[in-house]
Each structure stands twice: as structure tokens, then as C-alpha cells.
Give the backbone structure.
Amino acid sequence: SYCPLCNSAVAYDRRVGDRILDFGTSGALLNSSLVMYDRQTESLWSHYTGQAVAGHLVGAELDLIPVQTVSFEAFLASHPDGRVLSLDTGHFRQYGQNPYEFYDSNNRPFLFSGPTDDRLEPITRVVALREGAAGAVIPNDLLAERRVVPFTFAGRELVALFEPGTASALDTSLIADGRDVGATGVFERSVGGRLLDLSVADGGGFIDAASGVVYDILGRPSGSGGTDALEPVEHLDTFWFAAAAFYPDAQIIGQ
């Protein structure tokens, strides 16, 4: 599911108990984020949290699957045989067009009436994580500056990575012409029980100081030496106003 208003792409396991649910868009919003419904029970679900907020399944929660928003070039380099959704859907849609021109540069959330947390500007791009009721965000500006940000959250040693080269889907009318907002990834910092020390590699990617292994933005190692990929961590690439609305006590990494 993708919601442009809060700028977040998510993937969930659609199994709940012994049911496999089919989802659609309800047309409702919660904190300016999309609200889904399932066709089996017509319960309403928050796109942002994966929780059923009304209906027969209220209180149920979908399991989040880690995903990243990257350029097609980065995806293809990492997964040359990867599967891609077809544009031939039987419907006439301008899939490469952005109906919210310059939304991510006007700093005014659309259809959001809740309080804003002034620790960051509302439309600041952040990487958001949650563990139970706890939340944390990393501003993309910090990630763009440092490229590699190791941090601890909920007792876990993690690392966030940033790579330029991904166009904004919420800038110009034609998405491919959008300004470069980069791509992020969040991963467990250890591989095989060893804590990695990553930095930007000269030829692109991120190199571990001890092993010399280079990882791409999707956490996959270069070469065919049998090195394990980095373990992805569930997170959202999103706007600050939405992260703060859902996780009002969120820690801001780097502040």
C-alpha cells in the first residue's frame, strides 16, 4: 500500500488468524494517512500501523514486512531477475504522473487537522521505526549528510543507510523528473554475530571495515562469496507530521 499524503509505502502479511484478507481503499483518512478496508469483514485498517481501527476485526494487527523505496535502477542492479508489476492493468491510468505537484516542498500537510510537533517541520522526510508503543525517527537530512548512521533502538544495534539517486514521487508532475530525495535502508548492524563498521565505499555502496564486503542500499553484498545479506528492519519512509501523530513521544535520532 502507498499513501502519498503521509508519504509512506508499506507491505503487510494479509493473513489474520485463519483468514486471508483482500484489501481496498476506503476513502477515509486517519492522521492524513490512508485507511484500508478488507472485503471479507469490511473492517477498517490503518495503512500506517496495520491495525484494524473499526469493524469486526478491530484491535487485530497485520504483520509488517520490511520494504524500501528505491529507484528502479537500484532495484534492477540488486535484483536483475526481479518481478515488476505490469502497467497493463486493463485500466487507463497515468501511473507515472503525480497529482500532488510540489506537495513535499510546501510544508503544509494535506487534510491534516491534528496538532503538529514543532521539533521538526511537518513535511520533513524521516525514517520512522516503532517497537510497541515506542517510536524513533531519523531525519533524512541527517542521513543525506552522514550516509551511514549507526544507532540503538529498543535494545537493538541498527544502522541506517542513505544513497542519492531516487526521484521524489511528490515533486513535479512527471515523477521521473522529480528532484533527487535519495533512498534509505535500515538494517540489523550485525552479520554472523559480528558488529559491522560500515562507511561509504569509493565505487558506490557501503563497505565493512573489517571484512571489506560492500553492501548495496538494499543490504545485499556484492560478489558471490557467500556473505549473508544485511537483515532488513521494519520502518517507514514518511513525513514527520504523520510519524509524530502516530508516535507522539518519538525519539529523534541525532538530536
